[in-house]
Amino acid sequence: MNILFLSELLYPHGGGAELATSLYAKLLTEQGINVRIVTNLFPYEKERTKSGNLEIYRLRLFERMTTLKYSMFANFPLLLSKSLRELVQWADIVYIPLYWYSAIPFAKTYRKRVVVHLHNYILSCPLGTLYKYSNNSLCQDKTSFFCPMNCIFAFEKVGGRRSIEVMVSSFLNSLGKDLMGRLASLCDAVVCVSEAQKQFTMQTCTRSLWEKLHVAYNPLPNLSYIDSVDQDFGYFGGDNPSKGFYVLYKAAEELSHMNLRKVAVHATKFQNVSDRSQSFLRKAGFILYDKLDEAGYEDLYRHISAVVVPSIWQEPLPYVVTEALLRGRLVVASRIGGIPEIVEGCNGVQLFQPGNSKQLAEKMLNIEQLSKEEVFDLGMKNRQIILKRFNNERIVRDFINIITNNG
Fold it and tell me: Residue 111 and residue 114: Cα distance in Å, rounded?
């Protein structure tokens, strides 16, 4: 069997979606399936690499990361190129894990089976979040084809976009919900990463997609346990409001009154925060980092015994929770999206109502009061449970059944 991945980014570029894509590629090749990936070419990377039955073709797909989604819609010369036509003709299945939806009708002209993988809510919301950045609340609009421009405007400003980019994005994204849904309706299967994501997508997408929706959990990365020398907390979501940082900040303040001391929270992705804000946060007990590489995260994990995930958007299946469990850490997380599905049966996980800083503070205090032996024991049990429940052999088998229409 031959599968063509059309993925704008490939891990280590990107985040959880790209990590899942690279893991699936590896697992599929281990099953004897031939995989070819078309992705973006970054500096110092080879244009073509081959390892066993995995081939990667790197092309210049976009100029800047901020224009990635729009570039994939406008990249018609590449779609019509001889090299891509030959790759599509070679494939039995064309697999689209992110935004390359413009390739769906192109692949269907060659009568290829096309599979789309959802790692967000792009079929329900052009921003992929179902979150209103204009007033920092969950989006409840499940009927309109168009998303409010003020919400998209607020999202782009949070991302630090230039004024012209904000205006263009506000216009294009306000029309995007209907366009993405129409293109996706041409595909043969849509893979969701959790039951929660599937249910939310069904509430907001067109009925023609309902029978095409399937669930396959993301594969587990190969992560070992890391011993902890400190019992601090970790938070990896930056200052993005949908990640719930303000909830965590308020909880840290409340916890300092309850516990009569500051709680140390190691927080990443704060490279764009002003010096004044950094000083303010450090006084509240936050130890700030830029965006870290893999080695940086491993070193940070040695200082934390628990990871806090205070998200207030419907996280489909966040790898930050999975990785924390695999590293043998306790987790304090919002009861939202696919998070409860990941942590089911884990006694070393405490869930709280999204946005409730008082509950979060109480859960963090519970962990603060545990002995080092109790923390270690609960963390190791978390690791054992996630490894047992999310078996990669079973995950890739379910995935193959979906993409080949054998499920």
Answer: 9
Amino acid residing at 140: Q
Instruction: Answer left, alpha or beta for residue 275, where phi above 0 means left and psi between -120 and 50 means alpha.
Output: alpha
Q: What share of the chain is helix, strand, coil (3-state, %, to 5)?
A: 45, 15, 40
Q: What is the pLDDT of residues 296-325, one digit of tens each?
A: 999 999 999 999 999 999 999 999 999 999
Instruction: Name which CATH class applies to 2-219+391-403.
Output: alpha beta
Using the structure block, give the residue that is written with the tokens 């405007």: 153
CATH number for the segment(s) 232-389 = 3.40.50.2000
Residues in contact with 233: Cβ distance below 8 Å, sequence separation at least 6, in sequence order: 263, 264, 265, 266, 304, 305, 306, 307, 308, 332, 364, 367
What is the C-alpha to C-alpha distance for residues 262 and 6, in angstroms, rounded to an integer?
47
Asked, colleague to colleague, whether 2-219+391-403 and 232-389 share their fold, the answer is: yes
Residues in CB range of 156: below 8 A, 6 or more apart: 165, 166, 169, 170
Most confident of 200-209, 261-270, 289-298, 299-308: 299-308
Token pair 């066993």: residue: 52
Percent of the chain with pLDDT over 90: 63
pLDDT in tens, 319-354: 999 999 999 999 999 999 999 999 999 999 999 999
Using only the alpha carbons of the chain, give its radius of gyration: 21
Peptide bond into 77 cis (omega under 30): no
Predicted local distance difference test score (pLDDT) of residue 206: 78
Going from the C-alpha of 199 to that of each of 132, 213, 215, 251, the distances in angstroms are 19, 9, 10, 30
Q: What is the pLDDT at residue 261?
A: 67
256 close to 262: Cβ distance less than 8 angstroms: yes
Q: Rounded to whole angstroms, how far apart are CA atoms 14 and 23?
A: 14
Alpha-carbon span 114 to 104, nearest angstrom: 7
Write down how long the chain is.
407
The pLDDT tens digits of the residues spanning 123-177 come to: 887 777 777 776 766 776 655 545 666 666 666 666 556 555 555 555 555 555 5
**Dihedral class, residue 91 (left if φ above 0, else alpha if ψ from -120 to 50, else beta):** beta
- Break the chain into its structural domains and give their ranges: 2-219+391-403, 232-389
Largest CA distance in the chain: 67
Strands 286-288 and 265-267, how do they pair?
parallel
Q: What is the pLDDT of residue 125?
A: 77
Which pair of structure tokens corresponds to residue 340? 């409860």
pTM beyond cutoff 0.70:
yes
